[in-house]
Structures are given as structure tokens and as C-alpha cells.
Amino acid sequence: MSSREVFLSNKYSEELLEQNGEDFFLVKQGSQWSVGDSIFNPDLSKSLKLLRDSGRAVFYGGSLGKMMVEGIQQRGGIISMEDLRSYESVWREPLIFPYKEYSIISAPPPSSGGLGLLGIMTMLEKKPIAEWGPLSSTSVHYMVEAEKIFYHQRSLSLGDPDHTEIPAHLFSKAYYRERANGITSYARPSSDFAQSNDQPIDDQETTHIVVADSMGNIVNLTITLNGLYGSKLCIPGTGFFLNNEMDDFSIKPGVANSFGLTGNEANSIAPGKRMLSSMTPTIVEKDGEPILAVGSPGGSTIITTVLQVIINVLEFEMTMKEAVDQPRFHHQWLPDSIQTERSAIYTSDSLELVRRGHVFKLRDHLGRVNALMFKDGLILGGPDRRWDNTAMGF
């Protein structure tokens, strides 16, 4: 086991034991896991072999799905075989918009990632970001104020486009340019937008991979269980965790989820509905050629993490590794604070931001990016220094 796997397994050992019993493969009785220990999950091996040999049918209508449904129902859940049989994935066209001489290609609703980039980057497009410099008080201030505007709109209006009519102006650069005119030199309190209760931020457990080959194909993929280990429940015999993606719905207007994000009727729970997410797998092109592919875990911080990496490359001309390793900050309208990694902002700049009306909350880390840069015929990897990200070439 890696140091990260050891830390997380030990951290959640009591919850995993409570949900799954003493024989669960991630529970080590009488002691804690250490780096180098081996774990074995034969049930997952069996499930993967079933999927390999029988395809999706074994999950969505066959023995593997039946095992899962029966296990959920035994614990009081309501999912049925008909729910599995009726599920279909949906292909959606990517959200594409211009930023200066670049083309940004990102995730459409029900992800809020692409719209987040469209809104925030448009509000910054006419600002002299490059002159202000990375992590300067002025750069941070204007980026934060733009983030507040978008996350407020996210809370009010975004959801599954098959069930919710998303206002057309949220896809309009003209709308965000107009909103940018309202950004002043001082922080606008979140209470000016709407009232809600501040909530804590919880875990950020998502996975992102980006792969490119010599023929120009790029896979930029974000997947998630939502919280760490999802629901913490692994149905016996399956070997995999059930997610807790229901948390990405809005329970009721104004009530925050585990990431502190509030929602409205647009993202309410309903049968057959897909929840709003923040996943932001993004490709940046110039003159029809890719120059950057980037994505990250991080819950509600994914959008601003990907945003900062893109801005670091396009505006501040950083290398791929410099852009990924640069310290980060985040604002999501509520709670009303700039969340920042330790030592991200110089003392003089932080004091200037306080003078402008901002408050801070320290975070150990924001996001864990994997990214690729395409430059001079080379593919340059950008694994995040945070945790155990890795870049490999073959």
C-alpha cells in the first residue's frame, strides 16, 4: 500500500468496519495498515472477470446486478433490477467557447465545469491578468469576485438539462461581460447575492486521468464516487464500493451538501434525473491543435483548480509542471471566504486582500491535477505534487 492508501484506510477504518464487518478486506483487526502492506480483494477480481466475459448485461440485468440490488434492499434501500435495466448513459456534445486566440473544450451540463470556465474566464478575458502576475492581490481579487458570481448562478439555475431548462444567458459571453462590469476594487459580500447558511467543506474524492497517443488521440476522463470510499458500503461478493452521488443533488433550496454547495429546485432529486457535478475535464486548442489537456479531483474546487492551471499556462506562460504545482486558492460564493493553500499568497498581498474586504480559510491542498501539454512535438506531463500523482510515457 502507498502512504496515501495507508492514511485513508486507517482514517476510515471504524466506518468501514461498521458498514462491512470484521472480514472486510480494508479492515485490519488489532492494528493499523503500514506502508508496504498488501491487500487482496478477490471479490473485485471475480466481478471484473464477469464484466470482461459477459459485458454490461451482467451488471444491468444479470447476476452481478442482482447481487448488488439484493444487498442494498437488505439494508433498507429502494433500488430495483428495473432501475438497473432502464439505465442508459447519455452522450452530450462538449461545451466549446473561445478565450482570446484559444478554444476551450469542456464538460457540459449536468456538469457545471464547462459553464464555470466559460463564465469565469469570460469575466477575466478583458483584464490584464498577465500584467498583474500570478497570486498577486489584484489577480486573486478579480478571479475570486468572478468565481463568486458564477457559483451563485450555479446554485440558482444549474441541474440536469433533461429535466431543467437552464437559462440561455448562462451560455452567453455577453452576459458574463456585463457581470464583469460590476466587479469593483473591493470584495462584494456573498450576502449581497442571497442568504444561506455556511457549511463546512468535506472530502474531495474523485479521480482524473489524461492519456494521449502518437496519433493525436486524447482521453481526458474524470470519474467519482463523490465522498471518500463513496457510501463506505461494499456489498458482499461484489468487491466494489457503492457511491454517495445522491449528495450532489440539492436536498432542498438553500441547504448545503458535503462540499458546502447550496442548490435550488433546478438540482432537486427526481426519478431518472442526473445530479449536478463539478467535474471539469478540459482540452485547450489553438488553431485547431491541442495545447493542453487538464482535469482534477476536488469536489466544488475542481472548477477553480482547472481554471488556475489553464490561466497559469495561457496568461503566465508557465511550463506544465509549474502550472500544476503553483499554489492555489478557491471561492465558491458560500462560505464567504477565500480558501487558500498554506503560503500560497505573500503576506503583503494577503493584507491587501483583507483591506479589500476578503477573509481567508487555510486548506492543506486544493485539487490534485493530472495534465498534459503539447508543445514542439512533445507531450509534457504535469502530475500534481500533491499526493501521489504520476506521469508515464511508453
Percent of residues in helices comes to: 25-40%
**Which sequence of strands runs across the widest sheet?**
1-2-5-6-10-11
Any low-confidence stretches, pLDDT <50, length ≥5?
Answer: 195-203
Structural class: alpha+beta
Q: Give the overall form.
A: globular
Q: CA-to-CA gap between the ends?
A: 24 Å
Strand content: 15-25%
Question: Would you write up a description of this structure?
Answer:
By secondary structure, this protein is an alpha+beta fold. The protein has 13 helices and eleven strands. The strands form three sheets. The chain has a six-stranded antiparallel β-sheet. Helix 7 (113-124) packs across helix 10. The longest helix has 21 residues, at 137-157.
In brief:
The chain has helices at 3-11, 13-20, 42-54, 57-60, 63-74, 81-86, 113-124, 129-132, 137-157, 173-180, 302-314, 320-325, 347-355, and strands spanning 95-99, 102-106, 205-212, 218-226, 282-286, 289-295, 329-330, 338-341, 360-363, 370-375, 378-383. It is α+β, with helices and mostly antiparallel strands and 394 residues long. α7 crosses α9 (137-157), α7 (113-124) packs across α10 (173-180) and α9 crosses α13 (347-355).
